[in-house]
Amino acid sequence: MKNLLYISIAIFLLSCGDANNQLNYADASIKGKLSNSSGQTIFLEALGTKAINIVDSTKVQDDGEFAFDYQINKTSFYRIRISGNNFFNLILNPSEKVEVTADASNMAWTYQVAGSDESVRLQKLNGFLSNTYSKNDSLNNALRQHQQRGDAQSYVRAVNYQRQLNEKMYKFLRQFVVEKPASLASLAAVNKLNPENDFDYLKKVADGLSQTMPESEYYTQLAAQVKELSKLAVGGEAPEMALPDPNGNIITLSSLRGNVVLVDFWASWCKPCRIENPNVVRVYQKYHDKGFEILGVSLDKNKNQWLAAINQDGLIWKHISDLRAWQSSVVPLYNVKGIPLAYLLDREGKIIAKNLRGQQLDQKLAEIFGE
Q1: What is the pLDDT of residues 146-156, one digit of tens each?
Q2: Of 204, 261, 266, 326, which shows the fewest CB atoms inside 10 Å?
Q3: In which element (H, E) is residue 91 found?
């Protein structure tokens, strides 16, 4: 079962309560009933950004009932776990009295929660994601079968359906965030989005949490992520770079202001880059006279191979490289994790799109240049 709470964690086991404690429903912060369980030890764990801490444990009674006496002292992510992969997540606030039910054989798919609005939202989110993941798994199996049989028509239909399924998921996640940005459930949702494509939604949640829980470790981690991503977010100014061209002349990115510029990170050894190059040549020829420029930024190390690839692929635009490959100064500057990578800039040097390729790039340029 996939962990539907996307938080980076390391596991540390701390002291826990007495597993033989007697039920005390009057004082219990969390109580519930599990079917298909009797005598099992279950754990209440706090989920931090760096650790999972066991904060309480108890035994399930013969009738399936259980209770945790641990008192919630701050709003946080928690989970109730029987074994490594058999658990469900909650978001608990101080003073809440939460009741849960589940089938102990598969808690994540069967649990129900009451008494905690945030946990109910998280359950809604996790239920939707579980259903989507299940459909995607079935589609992936179908795609493999269509490919093995050479059934191109069925393969294309399955690909298109999977694309629609994922678009529906991203739409749901965005709407979920907008409904209540200042929410840990929305934090769980936004972590399922692409942080570069959906930066505005990350910022909505960060801004919301800054008002409701500014001291929280979850907010601190998200705020740091937003700060880092904002440097390369759509709407922000592209960082300046200055590297030598093949003749040793220094070219700055700012020298291309006044043009719509595609900053294209590539290398002669990068097969996907070389496959994409004919598309880039095509749009360059189509829009260059209208004010479109390309700055090729190579992560090559061998100058001769770099120049040979430029000539072989007919890349007649400006090129720069310090020939330091992944040690290049532009790698951390533009957070280059892989290539090809492209940033499209407006005439003032602001980022207007990322990683547009092929038809998507052509459509965007047609929109910009009024075609």
Answers
A1: 989 999 999 98
A2: 326
A3: strand 86-92
How many whole angstroms separate alpha carbon 345 and alpha carbon 238? Answer: 7
Q: Count other Cβ atoms within 10 Å, centred on residue 260.
A: 20
In a domain, 3, yes or no: no
pLDDT for the residue 101: 97
Can you give the C-alpha Rg of the chain in angstroms?
Answer: 26
Domain count, the chain: 3
DSSP letter, residue 270: -
225 and 255 part of one domain: no
Please tell me the distance from the alpha carbon of residue 240 to that of residue 222, in angstroms, as a whole number: 26
Selected residue with higher pLDDT from 194 and 144: 144
- Of 103, 93, 92, 95, which Cα lies nearest the Cα of 40? 103
Mean pLDDT of 274-301: 96
What is the C-alpha separation between 81 and 60, in angstroms, rounded?
A: 12
Output the domain CATH number for residue 267: 3.40.30.10
**Same domain? 141 vs 192:** yes
Better-scored residue on pLDDT, 152 or 21: 152
Residue 11: its pLDDT value, please?
A: 27
Domain final position from 71, 93, 114:
114
Q: How confident is the model at residue 371 (pLDDT cuts 50, 70, 90)?
A: low
Q: What is the DSSP letter of 38?
A: S
Domain contains 2: no
Based on the fold, state whether residues 17 and 99 are members of the same structural domain: yes
Pair (106, 130) in one structural domain: no
For residue 161, give the 3-state DSSP assignment: helix
**Same domain, yes or no: 359 and 263:** yes
pLDDT at 2: 38
User: Do 32 and 81 sit in the same domain of this protein?
Assistant: yes
Q: Which residue, among 178, 181, 47, 176, has the nearest Cα to 124 in the 3D structure?
A: 176
Rounded average pLDDT over 31-57: 94
Please indicate, yes or no, if residue 236 is contained in any of the structural domains.
no
336: helix, coil or strand?
A: coil
In one-letter notation, the amino acid at residue 137 is D
| Predicted confidence (pLDDT) per residue in 251-268, tens digit | 999 999 999 999 999 999
Tell which residue, 70, 66, 46, has the closest CA to residue 56. 70
Specify whether 84 is located in the same domain as 182.
no
Determine the pLDDT at residue 23.
45
